[in-house]
Structure formats: structure tokens, C-alpha cells
Write a structure and sequence with these properties.
This protein has one domain. The protein is about 35% helix and about 35% strand. It has four helices and ten strands. Strands 1, 2, 3, 4 and 5 form a five-stranded antiparallel β-sheet that branches. Strands 6-10-9-8-7 form a five-stranded antiparallel β-sheet. A hairpin with a 5-residue loop joins strand 2 and strand 3. It is elongated. The N and C termini lie far apart (about 90 Å).
């Protein structure tokens, strides 16, 4: 069955199609504008990646470490860096290494300790502390630097700071052969 439309009906239909086409074009232009703006803002962002190379790190760890600093520079020339992040590369895998701010185990870092690394005496414990401080420097702007190495029941306490009058640093639990069983950042040593 063929329907016939009046001139007024065809005109209304044509206007409807025009509005629909205009709306679709406006949405497409808006999406295009959003993408253009997104691309423009992305061009303001730069990321500085540099390998952390230090003889202490290579003596203690089998992984490679990288410092990553994202920064933003607007067209007016204003710039700011936001954060300094640590990345780790091990056996071709790359991931972010969390900055420990509370008492917490450090399994990613522990897995990077060289398999033959033994912590059987204060000198070896000091080497581990020195390497950890290369990765996580203790902020000593408000107090004198602390460096205490103590034998604990099942390993070592590597103290390099304080937190609300309590000593902070790393608790190192050892296996019987002197290898690291658990590495923990601790705010209460």
C-alpha cells in the first residue's frame, strides 16, 4: 500500500530530517572538538624517565630501577612536575614500585634481591640499608639523619628515620641460610 503525503506533511518530515541531521552533525563536531582538546592537553604533558644506576643497587638487586617524573607545561609556559615515581624492570616485565609510607611488606622489592645475597652480618645488613636508601631516600630536613643496624630475633632492623618518636626503617626476616625471607617497611622498630 502506497501512502500519499500532503505538502504540509512532507515539509514537516523534511524539517524533522534536517533537525536530526543537524543534531547528528553537532554531536559529531562536539566529539571532534573534545578529541581535539584532549589531544591539545596531552601535548602539554611530558614524562621524564631515567635509569637509577648505582653500584649499591647492582650489588644487592637483580632488577633495574627507573625514576619517572611526569610534568605539565601549559602554552603560557607555566610548568610543574607532579610526583616522582619508581618503576622496576625484572625479566622483561615492567611495573610501578609503590613508595612505602606505612608499615607494609615489600614483596616486589624482596623478589629483586639477588638470590645469593646473604645478610649474615652487620656489614651485609648495612649494604642492604644503603641500597634501600638509594631507592627510598629518607627525608631528614627536620632532624639529623639516623642510621642504626640492629640484630633482631629472626633477622635485622635497619633503622633510618623516626615517625612520631618511634624508630622507622626496614625489618628483615631471614631464612636459616641468611637469605631474605621477608622485607618489610616498618614505622615501629
Amino acid at each position: 500500500m502506497i501512502r500519499q503525503f500532503s505538502a504540509g506533511g512532507l515539509c514537516a518530515l523534511a524539517v524533522s530530517f534536517s533537525v536530526l541531521a543537524f543534531t547528528q552533525q553537532a554531536v559529531a563536531q562536539s566529539m571532534s572538538s573534545e578529541r581535539q582538546i584532549e589531544q591539545e592537553v596531552r601535548s602539554w604533558i611530558s614524562i621524564d624517565v631515567s635509569a637509577r644506576q648505582n653500584s649499591l643497587l647492582s650489588q644487592v638487586f637483580q632488577c633495574r630501577f627507573f625514576s619517572v617524573t611526569p610534568s605539565l607545561e601549559t602554552p603560557s609556559g607555566e610548568g610543574t612536575a607532579f610526583g616522582d615515581y619508581l618503576f622496576i624492570e625484572s625479566e622483561g616485565l615492567i611495573g610501578a614500585l609503590e613508595q612505602p609510607f606505612t608499615t607494609q611488606p615489600l614483596p616486589q622489592l624482596q623478589a629483586c634481591i639477588k638470590p645469593g645475597m646473604l645478610i649474615n652480618d652487620e656489614t651485609q645488613a648495612g649494604l642492604l640499608l644503603d641500597a634501600l636508601q638509594v631507592l627510598y631516600p629518607e627525608d631528614s630536613r627536620f632532624e639529623a639523619p639516623i642510621r642504626i643496624i640492629e640484630k633482631s630475633t629472626n633477622g635485622w632492623h635497619l633503622i633510618n628515620g623516626s615517625f612520631f618518636e618511634k624508630r622507622s626503617g626496614y625489618a628483615v626476616e631471614l631464612n636459616d641460610d641468611g637469605t631474605v625471607a621477608q622485607l618489610t617497611r616498618s614505622l615501629e622498630l
